[in-house]
Amino acid sequence: MSVSTPGENRQVNVVKSGKSTATGGKPPADDDKPSGSKSTTGTKTTTSSKPGGAAKPGQRPAGAGGKGRRPVTPVKVTQQRSWGPIGLLTAVILVAVAIVGFGAYFIIKDMRATSAAEAKQKSEAELEKKEASTPWTQRAAAIQGIVNYRDQKPAWLTNNHKQGKLTYAVTPSVGGDHNPVWQNCMGDVYKAPIATEHATHSLEHGAIWITYDSKLDAAQVAKLAERVTGKEYMLMSPVDNLGSPITLQAWGYQLKVDNADDSRIDAFVRALRKNASMESGASCSGGVTRTGTTPYDLGS
């Protein structure tokens, strides 16, 4: 029989009257009664007031063998990381990032260089348009250090076609008799000396011939090349023992400068390119492109 009180979880043990395995068949004395137990006549009913009478999970009940089993401590299994694939993946990601970074750097660099070149060309075109209202001879005369051989030595500026090696009063030449074939002057940058006889013919067509000493610093040469490359009626070449770092020639004009950053270079080009021609409209393409100081006699 079970007796329960509302709100309590009690476990009830029922023992038959007159029999007790713990006292040899005698009812237990009052002193032996568990605390909080109740008894009835003829029948002893023991009610436990302890809510903890039930066996705990993982613990063996006290009645089964008399001893409880200790809780089993769970075993932690630690899984080691596989560092090989992780390291390989990290390396691949870093390489990819580096490639993308370098690619972006060079693309941006090229874009900036292109933009700078376009801006410079636009500025030069606007300046030439602005200066067009002033006669080119006046603009040339305003350049400090320019030598005008048209006024000083007009007799030197003959323009006959002759074969073979020729002698010139000015080095590099600013005009005079020359080879029947001109040096190609469509923005050509020659890295070795060229024949004066061909270059002089280019001047007759209105080209600007920029020359520099063969020992000039490479960075200076590069700056000169930027002014020449891709521009028609322009050519450039080194000269051994020039006597000046840089010289510029047009038909009848010459300017010597010490540095490729000299602003007079641009002023010379703007004033005299095409304008100083002795044969207006003559082409700069289709000329000799070979280097060497000996002229090539290719006919008249």
UniProtKB/TrEMBL annotation:
Superkingdom field: Bacteria
Q: Where along the chain is composition biased (Polar residues)?
A: 1-23
Would the keyword Amino-acid biosynthesis turn up in this protein's UniProt record?
no
Q: Do you know which Pfam families this protein is assigned to?
A: DUF3105
Keywords annotated in UniProt:
Membrane, Transmembrane, Transmembrane helix
> For bias kind Low complexity, which ranges apply?
36-62
Show the stretches that span the lipid bilayer. Answer: 86-108
Which residue ranges are recorded for the region named Disordered? Answer: 1-79
Question: What name has this protein been given in UniProt?
Answer: DUF3105 domain-containing protein
